Amino acid sequence: MPEETQTEQVDEQQPQEPTTAQEADSSEEEPFDRKRAEAALRKKNSEAENLRKRLKELEPLAKKAKELEDAQKSESERLTEQLTAQRERAEKAVRAAVASKVEALAAKTFTDPEDAVGALDPAVYVDEDGRIDVKQIESDLADLLKRKPHWARPDEGGPRRPAPDRTQGSSGNGNRSPSDPAQVFAGLMEQALKGR
Question: Which runs of E-coded beta strand occur in 28-94?
Fold first, then answer.
């Protein structure tokens, strides 16, 4: 009897295959053969055991394949990050080179060449080959000076602005206030006593 329960449990676990009309007819004609059923069951169990062994053999290989795939992903991600960083460094270097060129050209006509550097966009003056368009920079600097003439360097040969004369005013006529705190305090006290 215990053998029958094991057989029934295994049969319940096995997927049921659809039977064709001929098999149905033949199974109806043939009586149940226990030995044949046990042999078929043993055959199926041994096939399942072989498949489980094969699966155990292949699991480590699948794990290694997954690790290699992950390593390649991380390697490609690392290379992508390096490429992005190098591009950013190259762009910064080009912007710095253009800013230096703008500053050098603006030094001829601007009081403060950094004003021109801040007002112009360095990316506009670089072509696809990385060359700087000096003529365009000079043209834009001239236009900038037309819009902001107060940024222009004063003419060297033209009339000069008068320099301030420090001898003029209240400190130039001898009415200097004393810088000694004691004298300042004495002067304040004297004025307060006179005002009484």
Answer: none
Q: How far apart are CA 50 and CA 146, in angstroms?
A: 89
d(CA 95, CA 92): 5
Q: Which two tokens stand for residue 59?
A: 């699991």
> Residue 157 has what DSSP assignment?
S
What's this model's pTM, rounded to 2 decimal places? 0.42
CB 105 within 8 Å of CB 142 = no
Q: What is the phi/psi pair of residue 178, to 5°?
A: -70, 150
In tens, the pLDDT along 39-93 reads: 988 999 999 999 999 999 999 999 998 888 877 777 788 788 889 999 999 888 8
> For residues 136 and 185, what is the distance between their CA atoms, to the nearest angstrom?
65
